[in-house]
Amino acid sequence: MKITAKQNVWFNAMAEPQAHRTKASRRMPDGDDVKESATLTEFLDWVAMLDDLARRAGSGRDEDARQLALAKLRFLLRRVQHLREQMMQGGRGQARSGLERLVRLVEEWGQVLQELTGRQPVVVDDWPLPYRLYSRQAGELPSPAFAPRVAERRRRQRPGDNVLLPQEQEAAVLVLHGIRFVLALVGEGFGMAQHPLLLQVQARLAQLVPLLGPPGTAAV
Question: Where are the domains of the chain?
Answer without folding.
Answer: 30-212
